[in-house]
Structure formats: structure tokens, C-alpha cells
Amino acid sequence: MHYVKAKSILSSKNGMNLYRGCSHGCIYCDSRSTCYCMNHDFEDIEVKENAPELLEDALRRKRKRCMIGTGSMGDPYIPSEISLEYTRKALLIIEKYGFGVALQTKSDRVLRDLDILTRINKKSKAVVQMTLTTAAETLCRIIEPNVCTTKDRFNALKILRDNGIPTVVWLCPILPYINDTRENIEAILSMCVDARVRGVICFGMGLTLRDGCREYFYRQLDRHFPGLKERYIRKFGNRYEIPSPHSGDLMRLFHRTCEENGIMHNNDEIFAYLQRFEEKTNFEQLSLWELK
């Protein structure tokens, strides 16, 4: 871990990364790709030490409130967050200025901040996005080795549900010949139905591999799935998109299950929902006024 002084914290679309890099060790992580110009080892997490001050200054200056996103280039709930509390500080600032938040994580550590998320959600909107890739606990410990397993994430989704926090699941990536089975997709979607998630994001049944990500992924295949790397190379070469041979059937299953259970499954619709700021205070005040 190392610290840097950042010049700014919010992107043009109001996303932020308090950390760059990650220690979860997911074998497929796209954020390892060289195109992101991360000039340090991926596990040597970069901490933006002045992020809280930058965020407060940015939100204080904004003329219009909006949703603030985090978690795209580094999980906001890496183990070090427990002691550093940068994510918690950011959430408190977001609450202070009346903004909404859409955060993305693989960790049930998000429940530590349930108190703040609940308060934000009462005034505007707090959405938690959770990645689910496999219903098999043993497989989860292989492909996502240093973070809580799917069972714990599912439990977190249910706790968030019970506290009124809207959730979205990322059903990706689906790795050909590893977790691209009908049984796995059915089990994950069953969890989504049970947890009453608002939407499920899916870019297709497969994964993408870029330079940097591909090399790491292939090393992990050699380590955990001997012979599978050669099968990938024969089948896909150096392609960016790596579709499952079962993609068509699995996507039909995905869309049908979501449609039958009232779960958003159009990516554009879900992203619009994540980006849409909702003011609840005025509605509540109006309702009280009408009661009088």
C-alpha cells in the first residue's frame, strides 16, 4: 500500500476511486489491464490520502445534487478500509451534503456502513451493487480468493433488502468451461429473486480479456485448472470477447427469469437508474402537509 496526493476526486460522470488496485485476487479482474495505466503492482494499493478533503470541496461547490459512484477501479471495502475508513468518511460527506450514492463491491464489509447508507437512502438514494459469479462456495474461493464468498454476499443482499436499501447484482464475468452452467446461472438468479434485487447487470455470458488481464488470468488457469489455458488459446486466440459456448441458452434463461420476477435486466435501464438522483425529502414533507 502506498499513499498519493490526488489533484481531483470526481470524474466527469461523478464517479470516484478512493483506492486504485485491489487485494481480492479475482482471477479475471479487468482492472489489471494495461490500458488503465496503473503504474504500480495491482496489489500495491494506491490510497488517495486527501480524498475526503477533495470530495467535500467538490460537493460543496456543486450547484445540483446527483448520484456519486464508487468501486469501478478498486473495491471500496478492501481489508484496509476497516482501519483507514476512507469509504466511511466519503459516505458521511455524501450524507452531509444531501447527495445519493451508488457503490459497487464484492464484500459484505459494506454492512459496517449500513447506518449511513440507511440515512442517505431516506433522503435521496443509496444503491449497493454486488457481484455474483458462482453459487459454488469452493469455486468462489478459487476465482475470488481473498474476499467473502457468494453465501456471505447473498446474506448481505438480504440484510440490505430488509433495511430498505436497493441493490443491483452484476452477473459477470461468466468464465467459459468454469462457471457457465445452467445450474449455476439458475442458482444465482434464484438468489437475486430471494433478495429482491432491483436489477441484474449482465454483458453476456462470457468475459473480456485485455493485455495485462489476460496474462494474469492465464497464469491462474495454469495454477487451478491445468490444461484449460491451452483450450482457451485454441478456441479464442487473443480475442477481446470470450463468449461461453452456451451463451445463447444462458442469456435466454437470464432474461426470462428476470422478466418473470420483475427484475430490471436491460443494462441501459439499470445504469439510468443508478445515475438518477432522487429527492425524497420534498415528497415526505408534501405528504405530511397533505395529512394536516
Describe how the helices and strands are arranged.
Blueprint: E1 2-4, E2 15-16, E3 19-20, E4 46-48, H1 51-61, E5 67-70, H2 81-84, H3 86-96, E6 100-105, H4 114-123, E7 126-131, H5 137-143, H6 150-162, E8 167-170, H7 182-194, E9 199-201, E10 206-208, H8 213-224, H9 228-236, E11 241-243, H10 247-260, H11 267-275, H12 281-291
Helix pairs in contact: 1-3, 3-4, 7-10
Tell me what you see in this structure.
The chain is α/β, with parallel strands linked by helices and 292 residues long. The protein is built from twelve helices and eleven strands. Strands 2-5-6-7-8-9 form a six-stranded parallel sheet, sandwiched between helices. The chain has a three-stranded mixed sheet with strand order 1-4-3, with no helix packed on it. A two-stranded antiparallel ribbon has the order 10-11. Strand 6 (100-105), helix 4 (114-123) and strand 7 form a beta-alpha-beta unit. It is globular, with a radius of gyration of 20 Å. The termini are far apart. Mean pLDDT is 94; it is low at 283-292.
Give the low-pLDDT segments. 283-292
The rough form would be described as globular
Instruction: State the major sheet.
Output: 6 strands, parallel
**Fraction in beta strands:** 5-15%
- With strands numbered from the N-terminus, the spatial order across the biggest sheet is 2-5-6-7-8-9
Number of contiguous helices: 12
Measured distance between first and last alpha carbons: 56 Å
Which structural class matches the secondary elements? alpha/beta
Radius of gyration, in angstroms, nearest whole number: 20 Å
Number of strands: 11
The H-and-E topology, N to C, reads as EEEEHEHHEHEHHEHEEHHEHHH
Helix content class: 40-55%
Average residue pLDDT: 94
